Amino acid sequence: MSENKDLVLQTFRALVESADRKFARVRDVPAYGRVSQNHFFHKVFKAYTRLWKYQQENRGKLVQCGLKRWEIGEIASRIGQLYFGQYMRTSECRFLVEAYVFYEAILSRRYFEGSEASTKDLGVRSKELRFYARFLLVSVILNRTEMVKHLMDRFVALVDDCKSNFRETNFREWKLVVQEIVRFTKVDKGFSFRPMRYCATFDTHRASLPYVARFHAKRVLKFQDALLTSYHRNEVKFAEVTLDIYRMIQCLEWEPSGTFYQKHIFKPNENGGSIDHSGASGIIDMNLTADMTDPTIPPNPRKATLYRPSVTHVIAVMATICEELPPDSVVLVYLSAAGKAGHNNVSQMENSGGSSKYSKHKALSQTSQGQNSGTSESHNNGKKELGCYDNYMWFGPKGNSGSNNLYPGDLIPFTRKPLFLIIDSDNSHAFKVLHGAERGETAALFLSPLRPIFKNPSDVNSNNGSQFTFFLTAPLSAFCQMIGLFPSEADTDVYNEAENIIAVAFSEWEIILCSSTIMDLVWAQVISDPFLRRLILRFIFCRSVISYFCPPEESEQYLPLCLPNLPSSVAPTSEAVRSLVVQLAMHFDVADSFHFTET
């Protein structure tokens, strides 16, 4: 009998080692590109499925051999981590939900809260800390607000407990993680009116739907791939997800509808009954998410998110995505970084206009690029590429190394494929030179303002994300932040009415755009896509609001740009657009903050 138990334990340990080896390999697989890596995923998932079933079938013998509850928790945590990694590679929400299911089961079954001996084991407590950090990230991305609050309380208490019980150990890194999540969750507090994900209930406009359905350009592009990256000093982040990237991720995903839309309420007990935590129970339904996915929505665009990348990494990922891009498809590229070395994105509020900045960039560039004058003027379809290497965005830490500079000219080779470029920088206008210098496909360009603008700049934390990105992902929230309004639950009806005002205007703008006979093909070929169409509408909103809010004589540095130009029928001065800004200003009683009479 003893030999049988030993054999069971040996088999279990062998399965753990085998699964861990496969996990290590799949963790190193690049998180971008369309080349299928499913064989890696299937192998490691099969290994963990086998391990999971084996510990269930032999649980009694394993417990008698000394199996600890935290060991089962660690296996489940690995499976959750595996699912989350697959979500980051594919953007399929079902993997994110699977990760949530496993993490929630670990929490509800208290796998890491076992015997007193395990609480005094630094290795076990470190595993528990990592579990909470990973579960927090999944809950944040899934917008499980109540769970995030619950996990934060537990996480803070656990870090404090570890500091008390392991005084000889430095928990500085974990204290920084606590600070990160607290800072991250505070930023959007009071600004969450509606989901940032594309929600059919709020983002599909019934009046304009027939016009969108009937619209047909000479060429229609599919949006299936995106590259998202930001690099700013001191930006708000949690783990390797910055606030701006988090907002863009949300903006480019579908919000599940129906019963899934009802926020999941955390319950410590399963099936309404009590749980026996005395043994090493390991029952987690590995198919529990079958009823938690929404088959009615299309797949999300695949997103490659890069955290503080080098310029060469950005270029390499862009090359991979463009090389593997399916026919008749467009890539969305979101680049957010400061315009020169050591220059924070929001310290732009302290600078003067854009022209002086350009001269500084040019002087810096001429110092390091003096030998490149011959390469900065090359012919493209009879046109010269002027200034493509004079200005840049900065992807790097403190210092002034040319290897950290991303020049407009660096993006030109990728214009052989259709690109939808969003440049969010205090030097974004330098990228205007891309228009007309493309190699084959005219790029759609959104260029951020050179400076943000707020009614009360002192009330806005300078590192709480980009104002331009905020407008593209949560337009009403960005509007309220700009005019100095901080919502409370008591004002819910006021803000819901404001959302309805915006929705009516967006519906009208969709009709105008889809009825236009002069819209540039660059926009016409992407406007059928719901995500890109919504970004276009929000750009129009952002540009119009700021055009009436900023001092007219300083509009050049405060206004975003789009190239090629959108139809004049949706320009800020058009009645259909101007009327929305007036309505919102009157609705919030802030009309005196806008310059309606001067325009």
TrEMBL record:
A GO BP annotation: DNA-templated transcription
The cross-references to InterPro entries, in alphabetical order and at most eight, read: SCAI (IPR022709)
Task: Give the compositionally biased regions (Low complexity).
Answer: 365-378
Where would one find the signal peptide in this protein?
none
GO MF term set? transcription corepressor activity
Region annotated Disordered sits at 344-382
Q: Which domain of life is it from?
A: Eukaryota
Pfam families in the record: SCAI (PF12070)
* Compositional bias per record (Polar residues), positions renumbered to this chain: 344-357
Name the UniProt record assigns to this protein: Protein SCAI
Source organism per entry reads: Clitoria ternatea
